């Protein structure tokens, strides 16, 4: 017989107090401050901003602290905060040609206009634990690095020459393209246009996207990808005030952009040329941008007449299960009381067992 536990409010308050105590940890250890998280856990903060679809480094750092480093919980907190913010205006599309690049690499060209810019990356490390950090070791002295937003002038795109030859599809939008839907205000109705798919991919769980993108590399989609260009940097944000009638910059945000090249032999009325998948995310998030670009191209299978054989090519499957907050809610709701439902199934099993024993 299942009975309800009394004194639930007091138990919940005690649970919340225990959570606060766990978050603080040993009082003898200095408390972690939000500015420290924002500055020293930049990649974690960037991931939270991307999946919450809100560019707010302080808010994301606060969410990380409050969630004790749980990414999904931090995303949930920041999304909830996002719903309280007014939408004052719309910005113009980001002009990635104006990016002040901190890192830019291409895997398909040895030499590219402006050169390869290695920038900050784990790619060139040995993945060995640096035990010196336990004792407050500081980085070795090096030449001063200019701020990201002043590193150098914008670099030309690595793929422009291929576009000029017609060897790769243009990445620019076409005149007459429909107005992109807003997935935060309009419920998705499948199949979604690419603009909506990209929005959902940009805030999808990184682990999910990584798995989907990896599946395409293992043969579960008809793609053969090359990393055409990956770049990280700051991009101006523009608005067009009604009283002015022309664009003005109101600030900058850090983003990661990945242009993935895929083979295409022609078909569906299109000539043989390379096609693209694109990934664009807040902050420094190369892994997610690359996975996003792989999945973006896989989801364009209908557009190019590719044979549909793989999960990564199924838009509804990929997009409806990639949201970390929704997925977490569905899984974690199983912790809530299900007394009545379980009791009914328990009685059913007992009745079936009695019938089976006859």
What is the topology?
Elements: H1 8-24, H2 34-40, H3 42-52, H4 57-66, H5 71-82, E1 100-105, H6 160-164, H7 194-202, H8 206-217, E2 225-239, E3 248-262, E4 275-282, H9 286-298, H10 301-304, H11 315-320, H12 324-332, H13 339-357
Helix pairs in contact: 2-4, 3-4, 3-5, 4-5, 7-9, 8-9
The largest pleated sheet is described as: 4 strands, antiparallel
Q: Structural class of the secondary elements?
A: alpha+beta
**Tally of helical runs:** 13
Number of strand elements: 4
* Low-pLDDT residue intervals, each spanning 5 or more residues: 146-151
Strand content: 5-15%
Report the mean per-residue pLDDT as an integer.
Answer: 90
Helix content: 25-40%
Could you list some keywords that capture this structure?
alpha+beta; 2 domains; 4-stranded antiparallel β-sheet; 13 helices; 4 strands
Folded structure, characterized:
The structure is a single chain. This protein is an alpha+beta fold and 358 residues long. It has 13 helices and 4 strands. Helix content is 37%, strand content 12%. The protein has 2 domains: 10-82, no CATH class; 96-119 and 148-171 and 186-322, no CATH class. Strand 2 (225-239) and strand 3 (248-262) form a beta hairpin. The chain is globular, with a radius of gyration of 25 Å. The longest helix is centred in the last third of the chain and has 19 residues, at 339-357. The protein has a 4-stranded antiparallel β-sheet with strand order 1-2-3-4.
